[in-house]
Amino acid sequence: MVGPERLYLAHALQLTEAQVKVWFQNRRIKWRKHHLEVTQQRLAVLQRHRPEDREDI
Q1: Phi/psi zone of residue 55: left (φ > 0), alpha (ψ -120 to 50 degrees), beta?
Q2: What is the pLDDT of residues 4-15, one digit of tens each?
Q3: Which of 26, 36, 30, 34 lies closest to 1, judged by CA?
């Protein structure tokens, strides 16, 4: 969110522009952390369910 949008939102919510900026920064960090956790969980599931290396194949 940049300039005029941030100013408009800050005014509408009766916050400072800095507060709005920090809120969005925190939200992005939270999203990235969640996305990383989900990705790691998916990889763990895939690794558990992959066929083991077998010599008879």
Answers
A1: alpha
A2: 999 999 999 999
A3: 26
Fold of 3-47: Arc Repressor Mutant, subunit A (1.10.10)
The rounded distance, in Å, linking the Cα atoms of 54 and 41 is 25
d(CA 28, CA 21): 11
Rounded to a whole number of angstroms, the CA Rg of the chain reads 22
Delimit the domains of the chain by residue range.
Answer: 3-47
Task: Say how many C-beta atoms besides its own lie within 10 A of residue 36's C-beta.
Answer: 10
Structure tokens at 34: 């969640």
Number of neighbours of residue 15 by Cβ within 10 angstroms: 15
pTM flag (> 0.90): no
